[in-house]
Amino acid sequence: MSGNVIDYQYGKLRGILVTLPNHALPQVESYLGLQYASLLGGELRFMPPTSPMEKWNGVRVALKFRPVCPQKRLDIDELYRVLPEGRANHFKRLQAFLESQTEDCLNLNIYVPVVGKCTINKCVHLVLFGHKASAA
């Protein structure tokens, strides 16, 4: 779990620390499944989305992927017949992320390199524009 707590316009967020397989790269803080707009569970299908969500109290830990947008599932056996083995293995690893799908998929996963302590003069700021909302 990350030691940093981010003040977001809807509440406080904490990410998780991830060590990458390539040890030459720094650790990253990951903030998974951040909703940036909503279709209200499909009620606004083909309509402009609403602002993300209501405010919350306390610290929310952003550690889960949200469902992905609907897409066709791959036939892995067919991929092994038509693609090089390494490429087919790549798609096979991605299959787990396609298990849960929904049209209300307006979410972000944000990864921030950990390069030391965050101070007032040395922080990464993320600004999201659109859908009548922004965060910093």
From TrEMBL:
Organism: Capitella teleta
Annotated ranges, domain Carboxylesterase type B: 4-116
Name used for this protein in its record: Carboxylesterase type B domain-containing protein
Pfam families: COesterase
Signal peptide boundaries: none
Family designation: Belongs to the type-B carboxylesterase/lipase family.
Top-level division of the source organism's lineage: Eukaryota
